[in-house]
Amino acid sequence: MSDTVKVPQPAGTSTTERENAERGFTASPSLAKNLQTVLVDFIALQLVGKQAHWNIVGPNFRDLHLNLDEVVAIARDGADEIAERMRALHATADGRPAVVAEQTALPEFPAGEITTHDAIDLTVRAVEATVGTMRQVHDEVDSADPTTADIFHEFIAKLEQQAWFLSAETRTPSD
Asked: Where is this region: Disordered (predicted)?
């Protein structure tokens, strides 16, 4: 078996037929691609959050266990909202496992048990990568569809708050 992941085709680039459909705004190929890019990171963030949630051990386990569920809930809501926005704009959302694995910008999360402190650092990196993707495509998305950019703003704020909540666990006051 090859070490490379084969992404099934098509991978989120097709559009719906317009027959008997609403006549509203249709996503351009570049807007659809940017939304797909954000979608796969939200899906991957859900998986990272649950992987950490199931396997953390160590100090402050319970609080972190619950906080990770908050991150997962935001990521699930984000994935659903972005996918539904894509469908409203006649683009096809693609959240298949092979597509997510191939396209996500999130770093790989380790297998097995992980200390609470390591889980915090790795989860914060995953949250920041998801936010980074939204910020990276934001201006192009805003130019094409300010409504979608508004959705990004909501989730950027929620995720940055979670990164702060998580990272506060391992920080010390500055002088």
From this structure: 1-26
